[in-house]
Design goal:
Helices cover 40% and strands 15% of the residues. The protein is α/β, with parallel strands linked by helices. Helix 10 packs across helix 11. The longest helix is centred in the C-terminal third of the chain and has 19 residues.
């Protein structure tokens, strides 16, 4: 069963480990995802996010540029197994040559918020998806989870504030360039602004259903799932246990396969079979699903989905067909 995954933080994890003098590489490592694990998991495409915590970096743009260089170097070193894609035709070419496709994305609008030229620079480097926020307010908009320094606590309720004027300008710039807007992490108000003003389908690369896990405000409401589906979008199932498990508590073990499947079935009931794919968030989550362990374990999820009564055709849609179709139409 081929895997098309819309989000992982592996490049950022490698970047941070190398800053600590840990010689980590993409081919084989002790992270959730590497090339050897992807081969075992039968990956067709992995989206690699350039994730930057803007509060921990002096210059988000420069940090992301360093990550982009690292990504390109690792892809070049492993060109026999993996190749970057810029268009859908590149995905088709990689399939013919037996290579994994690597798609580049941005996570955190502060990376490019200063001026449109920054976004254009990333487009030239192959970025084809971008979020507006991570966990902090920035010049583009608001997240659904942010730190309030005055009250010293993390808010998690659905934030109604939408995109700022600059956020709307960047949405227009994304669509002009051919970068797909990604509403994961974005406030509820921001989601509805993207839905209102976007001229093309958009996606939520790593978000689940709030109807099952309401304490994870980054999950989508039923209304959001329906709107995303109606507009031809797709959302990626996030493997993070706190996004999956109702009444999750810190320090609990990783998500169970049955819990992931419950999310999948719920999203299908709300938005239909065409709107759900994979967005693992590998190497961005602390605990991988306890029965899966890492990227090599994806076949276990496919097998469990069939055991839970899902049709083979439905498993195919979730694992790769929905994302593949979306990329064919929008990349």
């Amino acid at each position: 069963m081929k895997v098309f995954d819309m989000h992982c933080d592996t490049i950022s994890a490698i970047y941070e480990k190398r800053k600590s003098k840990d010689a980590v590489e993409l081919r084989k490592n002790n992270l959730h995802l590497d090339i050897e694990k992807m081969r075992k998991g039968d990956y067709g495409l992995q989206t690699f996010a350039l994730f930057v915590d803007k509060e921990a970096q002096k210059d988000s743009f420069c940090t992301a540029q360093e990550m982009a260089v690292l990504f390109q170097e690792e892809i070049k070193k492993n060109s026999q197994d993996i190749a970057q894609v810029f268009t859908y035709k590149d995905i088709e070419e990689n399939e013919k040559n037996g290579k994994i496709s690597a798609l580049l994305s941005l996570e955190e609008g502060a990376i490019y918020q200063r001026e449109p030229q920054m976004l254009r620079k990333f487009y030239e480097q192959g970025v084809r998806m971008a979020t507006f926020t991570w966990n902090y307010e920035n010049d583009l908009g608001y997240p659904n989870r942010f730190y309030n320094p005055l009250e010293q606590k993390m808010w998690s309720a659905g934030e109604t504030a939408g995109l700022k004027e600059k956020g709307l300008e960047m949405l227009e710039e994304m669509e002009a360039l051919g970068i797909i807007p990604d509403v994961s992490h974005l406030s509820d108000g921001g989601f509805y602004d993207v839905a209102k003003y976007a001229k093309r389908p958009f996606l939520a690369s790593h978000s689940n259903a709030r109807g099952i896990a309401p304490n994870a405000a980054r999950n989508l409401t039923d209304d959001m799932i329906r709107i995303l589906a109606e507009k031809g979008g797709v959302m990626g199932l996030n493997f993070c246990v706190s996004f999956v498990r109702e009444n999750w508590k810190p320090k609990e073990d990783g998500a169970l396969l049955s819990e992931l499947i419950r999310q999948i079935k719920y999203i299908i009931c709300v938005g239909g079979e065409e709107c759900i794919g994979l967005g693992s968030d590998f190497d961005g989550i602390e605990e991988a699903p306890s029965e899966m362990k890492n990227a090599a374990g994806l076949p276990l999820l496919a097998e469990a989905m069939e055991r839970e009564g899902m049709l083979y055709s439905q498993v195919e849609k979730v694992f790769f067909k929905n994302v593949k179709r979306f990329l064919k139409e929008n990349l």
